[in-house]
Amino acid sequence: MRYLFIFTRISNLLTTKNLKLAAIDIGSNAARCQISTALNQNGKVIFKRLEYIRYPMRLGDDVFSQGYISEKKVQKFIKLMHAFKLLLEVHEVDHYMICATSAMRSSRNAPEVLQQVQDTLGMEIQVIDGDTEADLVNRVIVSFLDERNYLHIDVGGGSTEFNIYVNREKVACQSFEQGSIRHMQGRDSKVLWDSMRRWTEENARKFNLTRAIGTGGNINKIFEMAGKTTGKPIFRKQIEEVSARIAAMSMEQRLTELLLNPDRADVILPAAEIYLSAMKWARLESMLVPNVGLKDGMLHALYERNHPDRFTISSIN
Fold first, then answer.
1. What is the pTM of this model?
2. What is the pLDDT of residues 132-186, one digit of tens each?
3. Using CB atoms within 10 A of its CB, is residue 180 exposed (0-12), middle (13-18) or buried (19+)?
4. How far is 195 from 55, CA to CA, in rounded Å?
5. Do both 100 and 168 map to the same domain?
6. Could you give the 3-state DSSP secondary structure of residue 43?
7. How confident is the model at residue 307 (pLDDT cuts 50, 70, 90)?
8. Is 3 a member of any domain?
9. Is residue 287 located within the same domain as residue 306?
């Protein structure tokens, strides 16, 4: 995260007791591990990132095409989890949480894979549904909202979560098994798109939405490519312009000229289509892109679980 919300003297921070927390997010496109120190300063909690690793596991490639995770990818996944475990041990992490989303939800052999990780490494992985995923992201989204009515669009590799916020309170939500990898593979349908459109249009009218807020690696990259300033909105037209620029390039050009990672270069346009479609359905012209996501919500949840007292959470990176 690139935001500084609490301004305090570093000398004071160094005198506070800290807690090391880790969040491992196993998505359909990539697996992410973030380790942060939670600094408690006079009732204010500040998260300082110590380590962040993203690996393009692409579980969705297997699951959304054949319904299960291949043995080759299972073995690679176990090696990755072992690497994450060693990293947690080196950093002497106090508490950690591991969550898996759409691909693991949809995989026929997910129970066997999860049990193998448990037996081999002693690491428990929680497979969370779309509503739980949205609730975790909600913990960090609300601090970016003002009095406007927002449509939150969170596009992952296998699912998309929509949330409606009015006066910084979530009033409606819906998860759809539609994400960048599924869309790229053509694993969607007109019925699903119509369902997404109807839900968005009905709620946009009901709650008089005025702005979008987007989360996910692809919208973060589009925001960066548009040259936008942190804290400022990106406009729908700008998202369309970046998308058109990418679409005009070959895959090799996306890798060599735009310097996109291979696992980003192929899914960024399918993801952009989901963001743009939702904005059009809701008749929204601008979007905030705070560069936060599931892993950040997991860190907040971990802290709350281990510190039930009242506190105010903020973030620093």
1. 0.88
2. 999 999 989 998 999 899 999 999 999 999 999 999 999 999 999 999 999 999 8
3. buried
4. 32
5. no
6. coil
7. confident
8. no
9. no
